[in-house]
Amino acid sequence: MNNIKIPKKYTIKIPKDISIIYCNKKKIITLFGPKSYKSLKLKVHLFINDEDKKIKVSSLPFSELSNNEKKKIKAIQGTTVALLKQILIETSTILYKKLKLVGVSYRALLEESFDNKLLLLKLGFSHLIYFRISKKFKLFCKKRTQLFVSSNSYQDVTNISALIRNLKTPEPYKGKGILYENEKINIKTGKKI
User: CB–CB of 21/32 below 8 Å?
Assistant: First the structure.
């Protein structure tokens, strides 16, 4: 580790409440936080410093690479840093997204029947829309027009909220539909006579 100089942008500071297990042979790092734990399969070597509580991501690959892959090693190094930072956030906090239902009589209701959790949406259609929710997500309605999606995984939260939003995307003339919390829509002017 002393011979290799790693730039500062490839170092990650570890919070006190997160513990790490790193296996060099299996090429896996596991991070344990107060909320959950996550693992990441690695393509480059890591150096972990216990005194400073820092992880340094090197550009040394685990196996021999072809010339084409050697050109991409900096990109792999940067991606590994970004994924480790994201996992640090996911293991220490619960992530959520807030959705707003904008429109006349647009409503969201949560129903539980047996083992299934259903989200009932009234979005101006002639029928209700049913959306089945898996157990790894938590959905709750603060009001009938506000919906919160929460989970430990950032990717899962964004995917589910995007699926719900696609049921009624905001239209550009009146701005009705399902919007994210701070989303603003550029409203078009209609045809002038």
Answer: yes
